[in-house]
Amino acid sequence: MKNKEYLLHLLAEISNYILDSEPHRMVISLHQEPDGMHLAVMDDNKRPDEELEAMSKALNSSARPELAEYYGSMGGSDLLGTARLNIIGWQIKRADVGRIAEGTKIDLWLGSDRFDSSNFSIPKDE
Amino acid sequence: MLAYEKNVYRLLFICIGVFLLFALLADGIAGSAHGFLTLQLHAARLINDYTVVGSSGGALLNAAVMGLLSLGLIKLSGVRLSGPTVAATLTIMGFSLFGKTPLNALPIVLGVFLASRLAHKPFRSYLLMALFGTALGPLVSFIAFESGIGGLGMIILGIVAGAIAGFILPALAMAMLRMHEGFNLYNIGLTCGFFGLFAASVLEGARRDVSITIIWNSEPRLELILLVPLLSLLFIIWGAVSDGRKLGKNLKAMLKLSGRLPSDFMESISPGSALFNAGALGLVGSAYLMLIGADINGPVIGSLLTVMGFATFGKHARNTWPLAVGVILATLLFGKSLTAPGPVLALLFATTLAPLAGEFGPLVGIAAGFVHLLVVERSAAWHGGLDLYNNGFAGGLTATLFVALIQWVKAIKNQ
User: Fold this and answer.
1) How far apart are alpha carbons B358 and A97 in whole angstroms?
2) Residues A28-51: pLDDT tens digits?
3) Which of A64, A73, A82 lies at the smallest CB-CB distance from B177?
């Protein structure tokens, strides 16, 4: 897998966020797609609608290259304060946040600059 | 370009217009132009008050030109005019009253641009580092005009040195960020101070004098005294009109944020409340300075403009007052004057540590402000005044100290 450092930053930051809510179970799945990576994170914490909405908003924040490159490097290494999902949001192509039977699932789609969603296993809208 | 950006561009162009108008009022066209040219060839290390060196008009004209250059770079690189870029523009304009000039800033920008090319990144990804990195402008001016050699060769050498410094800056800036984990808003200040330690060592090794001298305007003109209160009122009105009835609710939401880097209030809250916040902090800062009878000169206006800029990118009333109290306590306890250059600038610039107070409460903020004053009074000598953001350097060291201690205490509690 390429960009090991980038992935480790994202993994650590998203783990930091999930662990803040003290789950009993956290599952992280990372797989290579034709044009990037797909990272899925699940826990057993049932979050209210407002939090899911806030998470989705932060993770799908608009492109901020000037912040992503500079401050993005802080992701996962700034464990003193609260975890910040917008740092992840600036560095990824898309995120889906939703409920699963036992808790919450976050899908992060990390594409290259040539990102083409058709290359990813993004679920089709129902 | 987003709709609100046009509005913010308009506001900043008006600010630049006010600078130009005040330059004309102070020294006329010829006087301001002459002052401006004088500044380009002058030393820039801390603390050279350009309102003395190049006249008030020349300094204001220099700040206006630098503001236009900054906005031009932001527009050209396609980056949004938002919290961080507004902070960068106002900071650059402020520091152009005591150190930055187009001649000493552009080589740094060139160096960062070359670094972005080498890293195969678009320049916009490195833009903030390029804009804030102009804090190392005095390195260019020192080699070109202060080294005691002179001539075109030294000007070229200064430009090359600036470009090299800019080239190294991105790598250092990202590393420094992880030291204080975003609790020092002026991260490039820490970065440039760190680099400045090496640069000053090399210059001293070459038997150049990098001792600190202070040129300080103790009789500022009325135009200078009125500048920040006027701009603050403009920001307050502009912000209030932009947000309308939502202003109160938005300001309340802003005060809940810690302000830790990167906190773009324009994006996370609203552009109007961020501008209102900038005006409010500028006005409170000006009122305090007038109350104690401080000299409102180039460096002091620069620090007020920096506070205003960062009020869109991390600072607000709740997370800044503890720092100011800490600085005042240290000043009084150690028998210093509240109106002396060091404490005046430290009080305003100590708000670089606002995220510490925002995240860990006012007591930590007061302690951080107290320590900051003591560190900042020494740190300029370490880098020979080559880093214009000396308070960012001292703030970064203070933040690192507090972050390490808090982390240790937290780890013990968790055991």
Assistant:
1) 29
2) 998 887 777 888 999 999 899 999
3) A73
